[in-house]
């Protein structure tokens, strides 16, 4: 991997967040460029640009989704990882549909962030639909019971256990049980992975 691959463009309107992410990535040997707003990134990004973009999803003016749209419209293909807040699953799903390669939920641990960026830089492009892991995931979805599939659909839509329980008329506790079952059956490590697979498989 050349140095160009190690470049991360960090976009976040929160200065403390920018600084802490920059410090972490710097200690890991990444080259980091910081931007306070999506418009700064769009103005300063050379063409063709190398590296990956790490952006917060919720920002004033140009949010992460709009930034992603504008990057793609300007012909930039560099991989984008979204930082989302708790409960931003519907936004993360939309970001994945727009071509973000991953999202990571705040507060995240350092290792999770590094992992997301490394795989983004390795992929440096949308995941191939022929990904064997994806085919396997689609096959596993077929093994879900009707109720598990309903819970999956609600989870990917961003529902909490309480909300899903209301929609499906079951207790939040029962939702948790179905959720555990469907996570086991799909072999998704966490909600983030479940959502990512679901989007790539076209079921979100």
Question: Brief overview, please?
Answer:
The chain is of the alpha/beta class. 52% of the residues lie in helices and 12% in strands.
What do you see in this structure?
This protein is of the alpha/beta class and 204 residues long. The chain has two domains: 121 residues, Rossmann fold (3-Layer(aba) Sandwich), CATH 3.40.50; 69 residues, Arc Repressor Mutant, subunit A. It has ten helices and five strands, in the order βαβαβαβαβαααααα. Strands 2-1-3-4-5 form a five-stranded parallel sheet, with helices on both faces. β1, α1 and β2 form a beta-alpha-beta unit. The longest helix is centred in the C-terminal third of the chain and has 15 residues. The chain is elongated and about 50 Å long. The two termini are 33 Å apart. About 3% of the residues have low confidence.
What is the strand tally?
A: 5
Cross-sheet strand order for the largest sheet: 2-1-3-4-5
Shape: elongated
CATH architecture label name of the largest domain: 3-Layer(aba) Sandwich
Low-confidence stretches: 125-130
Category from helices, strands and their pairing: alpha/beta
Number of helices: 10
**Main pleated sheet:** 5 strands, parallel
User: What is the residue-mean pLDDT, rounded to a whole number?
Assistant: 88
CATH topology of the largest domain: Rossmann fold
Q: What is the end-to-end distance? A: 33 Å
Quote the beta fraction.
Answer: 5-15%
- Structural domains: how many: 2
The CATH superfamily of the largest domain appears as: Response regulator
Run of helices and strands:
EHEHEHEHEHHHHHH
Question: Level of helix content?
Answer: 40-55%
Protein name: Transcriptional regulatory protein FixJ
Keywords: DNA-binding, Phosphoprotein, Transcription, Transcription regulation
InterPro entries: CheY-like_superfamily, Sig_transdc_resp-reg_C-effctor, Sig_transdc_resp-reg_receiver, Tscrpt_reg_LuxR_C, WH-like_DNA-bd_sf
Pfam family, one: GerE
